[in-house]
Amino acid sequence: MLTRASPGNRKDQAFTRLDCVALLAVLLMLVVCVPHAVAKTKARASRIYCVSRLKQIALAFRMWADQHDQQFPMQVSWEQGGAKELSLRGWVAPNFWATSNELNSPKVLGCPADKKRLPPSDNFSSLTDRKISYFLGLNSTLSNPHSVLSGDRNLEINSVAAPPG
Q1: Please, is 156 exposed, middle or buried when counting C-beta atoms within 10 Å of its C-beta (0-12, 13-18, 19+)?
Q2: C-alpha distances in angstroms, 107 versus 9, 88, 135?
Q3: Dist. CA 135–CA 133, nearest whole Å
Q4: C-alpha to C-alpha distance for 42 and 67, rounded to whole angstroms
Q5: Is the CB of residue 117 less than 8 Å from the CB of residue 132?
Q6: Cα(35)–Cα(45) distance, rounded to whole angstroms?
Q7: Residue 68 and residue 62: Cα distance in Å, rounded?
Q8: d(CA 4, CA 40)
Q9: Which has the minimum average pLDDT: 22-26, 83-87, 123-127, 128-132?
Q10: CA 64 to CA 60: how far, in whole Å?
Q11: Alpha-carbon torsion (125, 130, 133, 139), positive or negative
Q12: SS3 of 136, please?
């Protein structure tokens, strides 16, 4: 059996001003905090994705070196399938042309978080330096495990973009 609230009991069931202020404060906090947390999560996921691509690049270079006397493309002459001469001119793309059989796709060479680069290539023949998000350490060797093979081109030193080279 349903009973109706008497007019005297209605005040006990209504929100007070304090309840409304508390509810609005909680909603405001959610509106401010949730988008920030989502943005941080997306940024972290993007960084993880780019690091995964760096790992794929390192693996491709390692596989290439295993077939070329433990040398990376930047250490092997162009006539022997490497990219040494072009690397010395400062070009990065020829090194990835040389490792194209080991890389699944040139899309691996573009980081989604890198908004400064051109969209990634669909094939290696149209790959240029401007479509690559990563740098290569031209002095890197398999015999020196502390050398840097590749990394994100968007390097900053004290929040200032590092110059090329």
Answers
A1: exposed
A2: 68, 24, 15
A3: 7
A4: 38
A5: yes
A6: 15
A7: 10
A8: 50
A9: 22-26
A10: 6
A11: positive
A12: strand
CA distance 40 to 3: 51
Structure tokens at 152: 């994100």
The amino acid occupying position 38 is V
CA 119, CA 164: separation in Å to the nearest integer? 20
pTM (2 d.p.): 0.70
Write the secondary structure of 23-80 as one string of H (helix), E (strand) and C (coil): HHHHHHHHHHHHHHHHHHHHHHHHHHHHHHHHHHHHHHHHHHHHCCCCCCHHHCCHHH
**Overall size of the chain counted in residues:** 165
For tokens 């090194």, name the residue: 95
**Residue 1: pLDDT over 70:** no
- At residue 105, does pLDDT exceed 70? yes
Domain ranges for the chain, please list them: 16-161
pLDDT in tens, 17-68: 888 888 888 888 777 777 766 667 676 777 788 888 999 999 999 999 999 9
